[in-house]
Amino acid sequence: MSLIRNGIDQVFVSLTRRNSYYYSDRLRGIYVEKGIKRNANKFLFILSPPYCGSTLLNEILSTSENVSCNNREGTREGQQLPSVKDIMFNHDRKWDESFDYDWEMIKREWMQYWDLSAPVLLEKSPPNIIRARSINKYFTPAFFIVFYRNPYAQAESLIRRKSWMPDKAAQFAIRCLKYQKSNIQSFHRAVSLSYEELTENPLQAKELLVKFLPELADISIDLEFDAHNFKNKSMGITNLNDEKVKCLTKIEFDAINSVFKRNVDTLSFFNYQLVEL
Question: Edge-to-edge strand order for the sheet containing 120-123?
Fold first, then answer.
């Protein structure tokens, strides 16, 4: 199938499920920019480390009619969209603080995937937590949900899903919390929310989010969501931390704590405590 845009370029779209999603959203964004009435958009970024429940949060926010997510596939990350994947994802410098991106180009591409008639444009890619200052510069106005999770649960995911050694997983979890502490302290259009707050008291979490961004008033918290979890099934909003932490062996726990004990101040900032088996 071919589509002619403004009589100049020709866009060939293969009729696969993924491509039909990507390109229909791109074309919708193009046509909105070319003259369809649009609202003054707010850019909403979920700043979250990997394996902390951000896909669940993204799904919840996307239940709002006021929200457009730039990627509704898989883990719902803007960094994995075809036109930016090589720049943002297919390399080993995603977590290199000294390496920044061409955000003007990325913004142009993301604008083709968002439905620009929606007031709130949503994005979440885990490495954004180390580049929030750049994002704040190029996306105006940018709003941030600084999201984090019990580091024992995050470390368990890194060990199980990436085959990392426990000390490496623990060091990365602490590194992520330090980034998040900086993000909380750096931006005035930001709200902090933990995985535990979201899953243990969804109604209170919703109230916090709506106070932060009133456009989110219609989000649904009583549905089943498809976000990846270690049970591999759709679920209501559920705290899976205890089950995950129980998967850690004594040796893994000791190795994790050898790192966490050197970073008690960071844990305390987020109201986390050392756990002993």
Answer: 67-69, 120-123, 42-47, 142-148, 190-194
> What does the pLDDT look like over 14-62, one tens digit per residue?
333 344 445 555 545 544 444 444 558 999 999 999 999 999 999 999 9
Domain boundaries in the chain?
Answer: 1-37, 38-150+167-237
Tokens encoding 25: 């959203």
Q: Which CATH number describes the domain made up of 38-150+167-237? A: 3.40.50.300
Q: Check: CB of residue 117 under 8 Å from CB of residue 32.
A: yes
How does pLDDT run across 238-277, given as a tens digit for each residue?
999 999 999 999 999 999 999 999 999 999 999 999 998 7
- Say which residue the tokens 């049970």 belong to: 231
CB-based contacts of 91, cutoff 8 Å, min separation 6: none
Continuous H helices in the chain: 17-33, 54-61, 85-88, 103-113, 132-138, 151-162, 166-186, 195-200, 202-212, 241-245, 250-260, 264-269
- Which two three-digit tokens encode residue 33? 């920019």
Tell me the backbone φ, ψ of residue 254, rounded to 5 degrees: -60, -40
